[in-house]
Amino acid sequence: MIIIKTEDIISVSKALSDKNRVEIVKLLSENELCACHLLEHFDITQPTLSHHMKQLTESGLVKVTKKGTWNHYSINKEIIDEYINFLKDTYNKNCDDGICDCDE
Asked: Mean pLDDT throughout 65-83?
């Protein structure tokens, strides 16, 4: 059963269509990080990081909490689980309908 809305699938897919944002998600899958520590991993400016983080938070992939003067970012496991379930359901449905050749 698919819970995630079509708009959310599109938003998550768009957010993951950028190399830097994929790398940010990978980093956040290991630990919550503040913007200053994320910046250390990239050769980008703070405004560029802010743009990427806005895309990721608006898509629901990343949660943000304010701690002092810094924003701390973490993965939103629920939306990722729903996105993965959508992909699995789509794959399984296609296999059940004979569209793919899973036995090869």
From this structure: 93
Long-range contacts of 56-64 (CB under 8 A, 24+ apart): 56/15, 56/21, 56/24, 56/25, 58/11, 58/15, 59/8, 59/11, 59/12, 59/14, 59/15, 60/8, 60/11, 60/12, 61/12, 61/15, 61/16, 61/25, 62/24, 62/25, 62/28
Q: What is the pLDDT of residues 12-56, one digit of tens each?
A: 999 999 999 999 999 999 999 999 999 999 999 999 999 999 999
And the tokens for 90? 């789509």
Cα 49–Cα 52–Cα 58 angle in degrees, nearest 5: 135
For residue 49, how many C-alpha atoms fall within 13 Å in the half-sphere facing its CB?
20
pTM of the entire predicted model = 0.82
Query: How much is the pLDDT for 98?
Result: 59
